[in-house]
Write a structure and sequence with these properties.
alpha/beta; five-stranded mixed beta sheet; about 350 residues; 2 domains; 12 helices; binds 5'-O-[(R)-(carboxyoxy)(hydroxy)phosphoryl]adenosine; Nucleotidyltransferase, domain 5; binds zinc ion
Length: about 350
């Protein structure tokens, strides 16, 4: 039996993504981002993102089909992100996907965006190992998942209780006057600073939150980044009040160290305590050099095999939706039909 040709549609945030895969093989990953339109607001504006999806959908679809060298009628199935994400943005992708499914008569599969960040792993290195953990870090999410089965059993072990890590990068970059999106700017600047210059707080690491392996506290594998952001703001205020020059690189490096230290420490803890021996890193913040470095170090120290897909597959894209879609099709699952609605707060 030949592997299915699957078209994936992603529109949960500011990326309009169309991906086409055959089984585990990537044919195209075409992305149009409305990031430029959000820059002057310092964050994604939902209404603008929705309108941008509407503008970008057909051109992106055409380009993807062109790049993959396939015709719409050759596609075996359509997969679309149905949540979590921005309601209006999801709505555009889901409506477009339903229209395509009706027009082509092909089965439609509703896909969970978070699980798709994991499923994309098959496009880089083939079948995912059993006993897999996934650390997803982006502007919209920060989660550690246990993936027993990509197409069935996925469990949330921990997540942020307030800001996502990428959001913390963006907010701190704004405080430091580095522009938006702030992650890449802080990453770059941090290389010239001292990560030990300032000891910023690691959220939810007090014993009352952590507990012990035997008696876990309420937030053993969870993160919080809003206190860290406030600590950076206070620090900047103190320098300004004292009339001293801001050590921007040291603050960036120290902030980054606090984020990356607590993310990797808790992710590795969740893995070791749950017998997870393989970890996949995903989300836009996977581009961060220090996060890659420390995750690799700490995984190696605990005998965890780390997989990091290329960054074009880590940021939001349609190929990840197509990749998980093809796994779902191959599992023999029923299509989702045409009645499902987007779910902005869809759980894993
Ligand atoms: O996955 P993504 O493209 O979109 C979603 O948020 O879903 O992630 C974007 C986020 C932004 O917050 C951006 O600041 C952050 O990822 N980011 C980084 C780096 N590159 C992007 N954060 C830290 N270091 C980076 N090198
Ligand atoms: Zn995402």
């Amino acid at each position: 039996r030949t592997e299915p040709l699957v078209l994936g549609i992603e529109s949960s945030c500011d990326e309009t993504g169309i991906g086409i895969v055959r089984g585990d093989k990537l044919l195209t990953n075409t992305v149009s981002s409305s990031m430029d339109e959000h820059v002057r607001f310092g964050g994604v504006i939902p209404e603008i993102a929705s309108r941008a999806h509407l503008d970008a959908f057909v051109p992106t679809l055409r380009q993807a089909l062109d790049e993959a060298g396939v015709r719409l009628d050759e596609i075996d199935a359509i997969a679309v992100t149905s949540g979590p994400g921005l309601a209006g943005a999801l709505m555009v992708g889901v409506c477009a996907a339903k229209a395509l499914a009706v027009a082509t008569g092909k089965p439609l599969y509703a896909i969970n965006h978070l699980v798709a960040h994991v499923g994309v792993g098959v496009l880089d290195g083939g079948k995912l190992p059993d006993n897999l953990g996934a650390l997803l870090v982006s502007g919209g999410h920060t989660e550690i998942l246990r993936v027993t089965s990509l197409t069935g059993d996925v469990q949330l072990l921990g997540s942020t209780i307030d800001d996502a890590a990428g959001e913390a990068y963006d907010k701190v970059a704004r405080i430091l006057g580095l522009g938006y999106p702030g992650g890449p700017a802080i990453d770059k600047l941090a290389r010239t600073g001292n990560p030990k210059a300032i000891r910023f707080p690691r959220g939810l690491t007090q014993p009352k939150y952590l507990g012990t392996a035997e008696e876990p506290g309420p937030h053993r594998y969870d993160w919080s980044f809003s206190g860290l952001k406030t600590a950076v703001a206070r620090c900047v205020e103190q320098y300004e009040a004292a009339g001293e020059e801001l050590p921007v690189a040291d603050i960036a490096a120290s902030f980054q160290e606090a984020v990356v230290d607590v993310i990797t420490a808790k992710a590795v803890l969740a893995c070791t305590e749950n017998g997870i021996t393989n970890l996949l890193l995903g989300g836009g913040v996977a581009a961060n050099s220090r996060l890659r470095e420390l995750t690799a170090q700490r995984c190696a120290a605990k005998g965890i095999t780390l997989r990091v897909p290329p960054i074009s597959l880590c940021t939001d894209n349609g190929a990840m939706v197509a990749a998980l879609g093809s796994q779902v099709v191959m599992s023999g699952a029923e299509p989702s039909g045409l009645k499902f609605a987007p779910d902005p707060s869809m759980p894993v």
